[in-house]
Amino acid sequence: MIKFAFLINRLPGMTVEDFQLYHRDRHAPLFTSIPETEQYVRKYAVSHPITADGYPDPAYDGLTEIWFDTWDDHDSFFASANYKTKVNPDESKFIDFSNVGVMVTNETVVK
Questions:
Q1: Which of 9, 26, 35, 100 is deepest in the core (most CB within 10 A)?
Q2: Which ranges of 48-93 does DSSP label H, i.e. alpha helix?
Q3: pTM > 0.85: yes or no
Q4: Is residue 109 predicted with pLDDT exceeding 90?
Q5: CA distance linking residue 89 with residue 69, whole number of Å
Q6: Which residues of 37-70 are buried (b: 16+ CB within 10 A; e: fewer)?
């Protein structure tokens, strides 16, 4: 399993609330609406920070996780016409691409 974690921030001038609503209620349904999501993506989740006593303020406004079984599945998904014409253009409507953190992982279950 290949896991991608995208740590994202909102566009300048966009409120945290507007960012979270767009990410969760507009972009996520668009992402899951294309057939390639069902075909290639094993998990897709969006998360937003909460206040937690004793922890620092969050460095990012949101987290998107996308899991694939193989690199071929990853490549096929991101090369698809539906992703390129529907999902990818929507990302620039709420994500500040000048400040994105990305981590690609291969999970090892310890317990």
A1: 9
A2: 71-79, 81-82, 88-91
A3: yes
A4: no
A5: 25
A6: beebbeeeebebeeeeeeeeebebbbbbebbbee
